[in-house]
Amino acid sequence: MSSARKERNGLVDWIKAIGIALILAIIIKKFLIEQYVVYGESMMPTIQNGNRLIVNKIVYDIGQPDRFDLIVFKANPKEDYIKRVIGLPGDHIAYKDDKLYINNKPIDEPYLREYKQYAGTRTLTGNFTLEEITGQNKVPKGKIFVLGDNRLHSIDSRHIGFVDMKDIVGQANLRYWPVDEMRVFNGFKTE
């Protein structure tokens, strides 16, 4: 085989490999994971403005969100929001004296401890019941109730109402930027 033919075959092999890699990247991005850049302070201190995240897009195709998962969802046609799942279908939600109550049981929110230290005596989450802000006694089937960790500066279910399950893009699993703050998110299981 001539050297020109070997070079041509080598070039064809490289083009095939690059083509396969591009196809795989497109499939992975379309169906499995997505990269997001966070804009805003609604999830501070857990997630900061400018953090870069990997969102698992397939997890809720095979299962349901868990309480305290960090999710990305379609808030409107132009924006996706990242928030924390607080209420699941059938849950009654209330806040009293900065304490979360789900189905009349007090629930610890360990992800707020750091922020509460900075707030001092200031209340992070105002008192409310689900009925007062949504007109419904429980989270409806097929919907969830979400809040930002920075309760004083978050547009969440207190303002936009319930999030429809079909609007969930996926679960935030990994913060990869900045590198020195890399972190895997797995929610906080309290039950």
Q: Return the CATH class of the largest domain.
A: Mainly Beta
Structural class: alpha+beta
* Residue share in helix: 25-40%
How many helices does DSSP assign?
5
How much of the sequence lies in strands comes to 25-35%
Order of helices and strands: HEEHEEEEEHEHEHEEE
The name of the CATH architecture of the largest domain is Ribbon
DSSP strand tally: 12
CATH superfamily of the largest domain: Umud Fragment, subunit A
Q: How far is the N terminus from the C terminus?
A: 68 Å
Q: So what's the overall shape?
A: elongated
- Name the poorly predicted regions: none
CATH topology of the largest domain: Umud Fragment, subunit A
As a whole number of angstroms, the C-alpha radius of gyration is 21 Å
How many structural domains does the protein architecture include? 2
Largest sheet: 8 strands, antiparallel
Q: How confident is the prediction overall: mean pLDDT?
A: 86
Pfam family, one: Peptidase_S26
EC number: 3.4.21.89
Family: Belongs to the peptidase S26 family.
Keywords: Hydrolase, Membrane, Protease, Transmembrane, Transmembrane helix
